[in-house]
Design goal:
Distance between the termini: 47 Å
Shape: elongated
Radius of gyration: 20 Å
Strand order of the largest sheet: 8-7-6-11-9-12-10
Largest sheet: 7 strands, parallel
Order of helices and strands: EHHEHEHEHEEHEHEHEEEHEH
């Protein structure tokens, strides 16, 4: 088994680049993740692990070998601290191959429930949306006009592994709208204009619930091409809430209508 003790090692430097730069992740088709739970969920989600790095002070070689990855590297505390974002990730990191996220790859049920998020910039919000989607056990999350790489370390971390438990597709707003219409999926856009209260609509048939950023909301195509625009009635002083909170309210109303099935 290999051992790396210096944070100046060329391979470790390349992993820092993998963490920091979306361009590097795209060029290599790989990303770096940390945490035993996250790695277990990635494996369960069909991700291929290329390399595992571990700190023997925090995790045993026996536990690492359970992942059945041939390229395992023992690292020093210095190297671990260089690569790990958190101190509570059990001393293990992994390099994994990215997946493609084409709309055509989605495998939907006969009566799908989908979350569409347009133009979300903050990786933490994307991660929170993925956690919400996992909690509601929906068919898919579609990211329209992405502003952040889904393999950004902050997405991986804030999703607590739910990046790997959801079906995720990415496309332009026009591509996503065309996909939904082609598959006869009703579009309910969360927007202020020409809206009905969200709880008055019927989400028991194939449904896509669409959310945008707090600052700018959804772009015009979603407002004009939707089956119905919807709104969450606000009763306080502010007129918006965090996008993941809004998505949770909408998704669990749809799940309630479907008998949580």
């Amino acid at each position: 088994m290999k051992t790396i003790t210096s944070a100046q090692n060329p391979f470790i430097k390349s992993l820092v680049q993998l963490q920091d730069k979306a361009k590097t992740r795209k060029q290599t088709g790989t990303f770096l993740m940390e945490g035993k739970r996250e790695i277990e969920l990635a494996v369960k989600g069909g991700y291929q692990l290329e390399t595992i790095l571990f700190l023997p002070d925090l995790i045993s070689e026996k536990e690492v070998k359970k992942f059945n990855v041939s390229d395992c590297i023992e690292i020093s505390k210095e190297v671990y601290q260089k690569l790990a974002y958190r101190d509570t990730t059990e001393g293990i990191l992994a390099v994994a191959k990215s997946k493609s996220h084409y709309l055509s790859d989605l495998q939907l049920s006969e009566n799908p429930l989908i979350l569409v998020a347009e133009g979300i910039e903050k990786p933490g919000n994307i991660g929170a949306l993925l956690r919400t989607a996992d909690a509601a056990n929906i068919d898919a999350v579609i990211i329209a006009n992405p502003k952040s790489d889904v393999y950004n370390p902050n997405v991986v971390r804030s999703s607590v592994g739910c990046l790997f438990t959801n079906q995720i597709a990415i496309g332009t707003t026009e591509e996503v709208i065309n996909y939904l219409k082609k598959n006869n999926i009703a579009i309910y856009s969360a927007t202020l204009q020409n809206s009905n209260a969200y709880h008055l609509e019927n989400y028991t048939t194939p449904t896509a619930l669409v959310v945008g950023t707090e600052a700018t909301g959804l772009t015009e195509p979603w407002r004009t091409e939707s089956t119905q625009n919807i709104i969450i009635p606000m009763q306080g002083e502010i007129d918006s809430m965090n996008v993941s909170v809004a998505a949770a309210i909408l998704l669990f109303e749809a799940k309630r209508q479907r008998g949580f099935s």
